[in-house]
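Async update (no meeting this week)

Hi team, since we skipped the sync, here's where things stand on the single-chain job. The sequence we agreed to prioritize is pasted below, unchanged from the tracker. I ran it this morning and attached the output directly underneath so nobody has to dig for it. Comments welcome in thread, and please keep replies under the output.
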Amino acid sequence: MDKQDLNYKEYVEIAEGVYWVGFFDESAGLHCNPYLIVDGDEAVLIDSGSRDDFSTVMLKVMRTGISPGKISHLIYHHYDPDLCGNIPHIETLINSKDLKIISHHENNIFINYYSMSSQKLCIEQLGFHFEFSSGRRLEFIRTPYSHSPGSFITYDKKTKTLFSSDIFGSYDHNWSLYTLIGDVCKDCEPLKICPITRKVCQINGIINFHQRIMPSKKALLYALERIEELDISLIAPQHGSILDTSAAQEIVIKRLKELTEVGIDYFLKEEED
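Output:
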């Protein structure tokens, strides 16, 4: 598979049984990435997307060969409308009293405003994990205030895929499903335009996103340190590009840990300037 020559009108299998079912808008600077995990006859949909993306997401879900009725759980890492906006449409399509939503209780307070019918499960009540009937295990790791109080990330132990939510997200008009960041970026100063490709620098887009979206450096560092404890093959964020190499992951983590102005500090610095 040529990772830079993909048909974004179709789903993309990014790991065994893990599918990107998102929507590509060439004019957008913020790309959203819903993911589907299929294990045998069961499926879980992660951060399903906005209201406008519903038809695209569900068409791609069905093209994987899974009928919507096989989706037993919806996972939402926080409560923003770009993740949760299409919940009412999904509930109507699946039409099952057994459909459950997994999130943190801080998020479920707000998710109730999108959905009143599906049972809400808190990751703490689940012991911070979910298991398919096969034993395939998803682990939930809290990343509070990155960027909301109830934020968390999901780790698929089978494929070592980390669904990182807004962490590693990006504002990026130079978008590709798989990152362009590589070894050549290690010693390069992030600029608006990459001096090599002459395209918008993807690292710059990631830095800008985190400075504006994350409330503080302390919260971001806490999340990054938890992530560094994991054995990761693939980082699949809810915005931006998938980090599919150890080089890309190390470079981005290093750059984010070096940030001095994040959130309120970034705002105050801009005010001073």
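Quick observations from my side:
The mean pLDDT is 92.
The longest helix spans residues 202-213.
Reply here if anything looks off.
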